Amino acid sequence: MSYTLIQDTFGNGVQAFADRDNQYGRVSGEAMCEGGRYLQPLEYKHARRGSKIVLKATPKAGKQVTVCAFLKVAHRGVGWDDTLLQSGFSESGDFRIVYETGGIILMSYCKVITGDEVAAPLPESVCASGTLATNGHFYEVAQYVRGTMTWHEAKATAEAKTHCGKSGHLVTITSKGESDHVNGLISAETCPREERAILQTWIGLTDAEEYGYKEGTIGWVTGEPFEFENWCPGEPNASGRSHDFAEINFSTSYGACWDDAAGQENVGDSNDKYAKEWLWFNGKEVTSDLPAGTWGRQQLGGFLVRYKESTVRAGLIRDADIYFVGSKEKLIFKAFKSFIRIDVDWKHSENYKNAVGLLGSYSHQGERLGRDGQFIKDTNTFGLDWQVIPETDGSLFHSYEGAVVNQKCIMPASYEGSTALRGRRLGTSSVDEGVAEKACNHLLDPDEKKACVFDVVATQDLSLASTW
């Protein structure tokens, strides 16, 4: 699902939106929990009279998503205006009171939006809009950080474009002047200022054999001379797997520069497109995109206190959703074909013993099951490393009933049978790339085969090959 995120995000898949021209309120510092959901209310006192809350979402055709706005009124007394609250701040005037105590009122307004069955076609133009540079070349940015486009898809998209009768290609950058122009075009015209720090863009550079090159011999898709380069320090490094393609990375401390990447990665999104057949996220089955490039902040104890997308990604794992927690800790969500892996990356992971709804096999004390089927005891050594299998584990985030405002939501106890199954399915193994390739040989599409090999090697679970 793709969203136009304006104001804030809540756990359980609920998001709050406001019209850009009448942006409503700000996020308060107080987190609330109702029925197992994270609620981070907006504040009435910061709203302008006459402003409107407009709930927006663009789910995939035929799919539904619930979007909500939450409103906290600090005092019910002087200046209280039921009419204003009930009709003045929403497009349909149906805010309802969901909690009230001591003069503090929490109100909500929700709407279910169904995606159009047939998406409206984009207008076609022979001489499309874009930027004509002084070098005589025409540039157009087809997709950026919010997208889910592989290098091959980006190449095909570029070649399908025309400008005044001429076919396009993935951008080639042959001089510093052209590099500056392309970087400026992408960051200034395409990506909102708060999102530039997590932007990556494919370019037409490769050493893949299918394009006439060989490993270590880099060239442009057009065949023009490779004479100018703008690699980030330490790049290209082919980190860990076949990195045959290149991207402009805006997330480094060195400014915009190039790095190499695997073609099946979804640049600027949570890895990878092959995980989209199904995925459980925030208690809902998601069959299209995860919230793209999810960045968030959590308060220890399990309350979602801030959601934003402006965190610098330098040095962090690009193909994962990352939630920062506390001052240094972070949760890393990695989406694979048949499960989600969740790591806590710091030395104080036992703080999560009262975290909300990270559902998997664990004890009521919060112990997590490791790959060997045994509970992880020493969290300071191993952190939290556990996996969620949707067909057996249900949802990643569990709606825990009975929680009340300002009370910690307590993690539910483990259920019968899950420990033994997980131990069999995710037992320790040693799978190298050669073994994984043999297991994935039934796949004819080279991109699918690469992704299959990556899943198997990354998870050390040979049985994953059979799911492709």
From TrEMBL:
Residues 134-260 form the C-type lectin domain. Signal peptide: none annotated. PROSITE patterns: C_TYPE_LECTIN_2 (PS50041). Coiled coil: none annotated. InterPro entries: C-type_lectin-like (IPR001304), C-type_lectin-like/link_sf (IPR016186), C-type_lectin/snaclec_domain (IPR050111), CTDL_fold (IPR016187). Pfam families: Lectin_C (PF00059). It comes from the Eukaryota. PANTHER family: MANNOSE, PHOSPHOLIPASE, LECTIN RECEPTOR RELATED (PTHR22803). This is Lectin C-type domain. It comes from Seminavis robusta.
